[in-house]
Amino acid sequence: MITNSTAYPPGDDGVLLTARVHKHLESDEGVDDICYSTSVSWDELDEVRALHTEWFPVAYHEDFFQSIVTGTGFGGGDVVTVVATMGENPRYIVGMITIAIRRAESQYNPAADLSPYLGLPTDSTAAYILTLGVVDELRGKGIGRRLLDLAIRKVEETDHMCRLVFLHVIEYNEAARKFYLREKFLEFKKYSEFYFFDGKVFDGMLLYKLVGNDSEVKGVWQVTRWLYKKMRELFGSIFTVKRPRKDDDSSLV
Description:
Elements: H1 21-26, E1 34-37, H2 45-55, H3 62-70, E2 72-73, E3 77-86, E4 92-102, E5 125-134, H4 143-158, E6 162-170, H5 174-182, E7 186-197, E8 200-210, H6 215-240
Parallel strand pairs: 5-6
Antiparallel strand pairs: 1-3, 2-3, 3-4, 4-5, 6-8, 7-8
């Protein structure tokens, strides 16, 4: 079987499903009750590597996989992981999410151009969704939504100063974009040539969600106010500049 992950580019041949969970799902045992936990053992890392190969076209470094077990990495920040599993001894991973909490400006800095417009406290932190995936056989059953909800709750418990959760979605992954919009994330900005793999470059869209009391209302208001300010600046320039000089090589974008 070939992966149906929408993270792979359209027309891509994809990869074979090699994780051992697929044989379990094909067996006569059927689908067990799904459990959720925040721990992954060293013995499960091979399965985690196989699943990430099936879910994403990007190659992840070994320190990323080790941080899933240790809960730390990426410059000392916490890494929150929630896994959806079936069965016991052995258990089978059917979905998982990893989120890294940014502790310093040098970490996951794409949020730096977003934070000032949201009026976030200067000492607040942000959490970056690294990966979220569910096995092909069980997509559309609410597992991804449950993983996201539990992971954000865990982030809030781990770091009380976290006010922002954000991620990037590759340009062609409309299914992922719609998923996060349904979960009340907001789109902020497109980053040109953000992804690079297989010799090709792709744009990425930054989506975010504020966490904490009244965060959704505040987020919409703050971004709307910023956009209104930018539009006034833009139209003010249009209406005040009658005609550019021949030696003026500036342009409006």
